[in-house]
Amino acid sequence: MDKKGRTNRLLSRLAVGLMLAAMALFTGCPNKITVKPVTFEVTFSAGEHGTLKAKAEGIAETETSPITIEQGKIVTFRATPDSGYRVKGWTRDGEAVNGTNDSYSFTVTKGVEVKVGFESNSVPPTPPAGDVGSFEDTGDGFIKISPPAAGITGMNPTYTLPGTADEWKGVFRAGRKVKLSPYKLGKTEVPYKLWKEVYDWAIGTGYQFANAGVKGKDGSGSEEEPVTSVSWRDCIVWCNAYTQKTNNAESECVYRKSKTDTTVLKDATKGSECDAAYADMSKKGFRLPTEAEWEYAARWQGSNTENAVQYGEVWLTKLNSASGAKARWNNAGETNAVAWYWDNSDSKTHPVGEKRSNALGLHDMSGNVWEWCFDWYDANPRVNDAAYTSGGFVVDPQGGAAGVDRVFRGGCWDSLAGGCVVGGRLGGNPGDSGDHLGFRVACRP
What we know:
Layout: H1 3-26, E1 39-46, E2 50-56, E3 59-62, E4 67-70, E5 74-81, E6 85-92, E7 95-97, E8 103-107, E9 112-120, E10 134-137, E11 142-146, E12 152-153, E13 177-179, E14 183-186, H2 192-203, E15 214-215, E16 227-228, H3 232-247, E17 255-256, H4 271-275, E18 278-279, H5 291-299, E19 308-311, E20 314-317, H6 332-338, E21 370-376, E22 389-390, E23 393-395, E24 406-409, E25 426-428, E26 437-438, E27 442-443
Parallel strand pairs: 1-9, 13-23, 21-26
Antiparallel strand pairs: 1-4, 2-3, 2-5, 5-8, 6-7, 6-9, 10-11, 11-14, 12-13, 14-27, 15-16, 17-18, 19-20, 21-24, 22-23, 24-25
Helix pairs in contact: 2-3
C-alpha cells in the first residue's frame, strides 16, 4: 500500500472513532470512572482484665485488630471489663481521651491507634475536687448519682440556643436552687429484650398494658434496640411490674393510686387512675426519673469546664449541646459521636449503648428515642416549686401539681440536631405512644 493509501486508511479509522464517540455522547452512554474511597488503618488493643471490640459502617463488630475504615465513617469501640474490674482510661495515639467510659466513638480522618486499660473495682476512683457531686458505676446496669449537697444554683444562658423560646432553657433557671437526693439511673434506655421479659411476666401476674411495645422504631429492629410505642401510663405500670418481679413482692413498688390509697397501680388501660398516680419516693422500686434528675444526669461534668457552665460549684454541659458532646448542636462531629438523630440514624432506632457515653457513663441521653419523665409538663418548670421548697431549696421537684401532658426529654432518631440538646423540653399526653417514644428507669440507691 502506498503512502497515500495508508494515510486515507488512518483518516478513515479516525473518523469512525470520532463517530462512535459522538454516538456515545448523544445516546447518553457515560464514561464510567470508579473512584476508590480513601481508607485508613485503625489499630486497637486492650490491657489485661478486659476486652475491646470495634465496629464501623459496613464492618461487623470484631476483636481482631487492625481494621480498615473509609474516611469520614464513624468507628465505635466497646470495652468490656472482666468481673470485678472497670475501665481505667483510654488513649488515642498516646493521648488520654474519653475518661473512664466503656465505649468510645469518633469519625475516622487518619490512621490511629486506640488503647484501653482496666483496673480493679477495689481501687476507689479519685473523687472530683469541690462540692461538685459524684457518681459510681454500680455494676448492675445503673449509675449511682450523688448530686452536690449545696444544690444546683440556677442561671439563665448567655449563649446561643437552637431557638429563643423558654422550652430550650432546661429546668435549672435563674433564681431557682434545686437540691436532689442521690439516685440511680439506667446506663441505657430500656431495650426491647428487657421490656418483653418483664411484660410477659406481668401479663401472667395481673398486670395490664395499653400497648405491647415494639422492637425499635417499628418492630423490625433487634431486641437490643429501645422499646418504643409505649405510653407514659404503660411505663409506670411496667416499672411496678419490674419491681415486683425483681423483689418478689409489691412492697417496694413506687406508683400508687394516691398518697392515702396505697394500692399499687397495675392497669395502664385505666387512664384517669394512672394519670393521678402518686410516686412514693421512699420506696426503692424502679420508676421514671423526674425531669430535674434527667437533666442533671444529662448535663453533669463535675469539675470539667469544657463546653460547660458553672452552676454553683458544679459544671453542667451547655444547654445548646447534646449530652456528652464537647461542642454545641451544630458541630456535626460531636453530635454524631453521642446521638442517633436525623443526620446519621438512617431513619431508624439503633441498639442502645453504641454511642459515646456522657461524663457519668450514660448512653443515648440525646437521640435514639425521646425518654418519658414522671413530671407533669408546664412551660414554666417552677410553677409548683412551693410544694417542694424547704430551707431555700426546691427539693426533689416533680413538676406541676396537675396538667395535660407529661414531660419527655432528649430527642430521637428523627430529630434534627437542635432537637437533641440537653436544654430542650417537650410534653405529651400520658396516653400517647409512638415510634419515637421510649424511657429509661431510675431508682433509689
